[in-house]
Design brief:
With 356 residues, the chain is of the alpha/beta class. The chain has 2 domains: 248 residues, QueA-like, CATH 3.40.1780; 85 residues, Thrombin, subunit H, CATH 2.40.10. The chain is globular, with a radius of gyration of 21 Å. The mean pLDDT is 94. Strand 6 and strand 7 form a beta hairpin. A 9-stranded mixed sheet has the order 2-1-17-16-14-3-12-13-15.
Length: 356
């Protein structure tokens, strides 16, 4: 068995959640306790009984943009699908696209919006690596406004083959999202409601936010049987000075840093690693702004995160490797086996777990 094969598991297709629950906090919550090596079955609404008043809950406030693009080749009518990645200050976009046949620079793509109407055209400018094209919309409209009209919610393919319904515009977004830029949701955060956040705050738990724009690479399977060979995707994130001070103050007072999601965890650990030789247990997190390609895998030692809340992840992905590294192989293997046996709902719209 290869190193990568150790991160494989069998999942019945019927356990892959296709729609969210009516009330987010009613999702089930598997509690994996590392010290006791125990597993308990709760609900997300029970978090105030699990997260202490002295703790600091860290949320990723990235906002999912309607990055999925559907259209056709203007000259031939051939179907085209794409994913918006980012835009520069001159209005050029980077998109990943696929179609039958070979695309050429100068060709035009006509986008079709979610209502089925023809919309703006994209002019292909330059081909880059891994199927990425530089394109120029034939419009001077603001990028986010254009995407809001012509784009679609970028659901992962295991949810209705990526086909959105109108409800997904709200469902595939956290209630605390405020910084546009993600092409996938930070899914652990989808379980929180305003009521639950208010309850945690009222009991004294500190809530703070960082931003990590979840990129297209987050769901990609690992490309090598040997983890150390895999090239990790890069994502942009920011932790401001005030947030770093708040997190460190919590740790100094004996509270735990509770990271909501693997995305928050990557950025917190990146910020802790940026302290280098100046690392201090009571002040682990420095302000940080930039790209991170941190791949958390054994034998990584966590510096900043004490508790991890996360959804259940696809086999052979960097996300699953991160969770197993944090929680320990035996405990997290058992947690996944129990989750399957108890028919938890898996992946983005599914249930959650918290590793304490």
């Amino acid at each position: 068995m290869s190193e990568l094969d150790q991160y494989d598991y069998e999942l019945p297709k019927e356990l892959i959640a296709q729609v969210p629950l009516n009330r987010r906090e009613d999702a089930r919550l598997l509690v994996a306790d590392r010290q006791r090596q125990s597993i308990e079955h709760r609900h997300v609404r029970d978090l105030p009984e699990i997260i202490a008043p002295a703790d600091c809950l860290v949320l990723n406030d990235t906002k999912v943009i309607p990055a999925r693009l559907v259209g056709y080749r203007t000259d031939t009518g051939g179907r085209w699908e794409g994913l918006f990645l980012d835009a520069d200050e001159k209005g050029f976009w980077r998109v990943m696209g696929k179609t039958r046949g070979k695309l050429t620079a100068g060709e035009s793509i006509t986008l079709v919006n979610a209502s089925g109407h023809e919309d703006v055209s994209l002019r292909l400018v330059d081909k880059r690596e891994e199927g990425v094209w530089v394109v120029k919309p034939e419009s001077d409209e603001d990028t986010l406004l254009l995407l809001d009209r012509a784009g679609r919610v970028p659901l992962p393919p295991y949810i209705r083959k990526g086909e959105m319904v109108e409800a997904d515009r709200d469902s595939y977004q956290t209630v605390f999202a405020r910084t546009p830029g993600a092409v996938a949701a930070p899914t652990a955060g989808l379980h929180f409601t305003e009521r639950l956040l208010r309850k945690l705050k009222e009991q004294g738990t500190t809530l703070c936010r960082l931003t990590l724009h979840v990129g297209v690479g987050t769901f990609r399977p690992i490309s090598s049987d040997v983890l150390s060979v895999h090239k990790m995707h890069s994502e942009w994130g920011c932790i401001d000075e005030e947030t770093a001070l708040t997190i460190n103050d919590c740790r100094k007072k004996g509270g735990r840093i509770v990271s909501v999601g693997s995305t928050s965890t990557r950025l917190l650990e990146t910020a802790a690693a940026s302290s280098g030789d100046d690392f201090c247990h009571d002040m682990p997190v420095h302000a940080f702004s930039g790209h991170t390609d941190l791949f958390i895998r054994p034998p990584y030692t966590f510096r900043a995160v004490d508790v991890l809340m996360t959804n259940f992840h696809l086999p052979k992905t960097t996300l699953l490797v991160l969770v197993r590294t944090f929680g320990g192989d035996e405990l997290i293997r058992r947690a996944y086996e129990e989750a399957v046996g108890e028919e938890y709902r898996f992946y983005s719209y599914g249930d959650s777990m918290i590793v304490v």
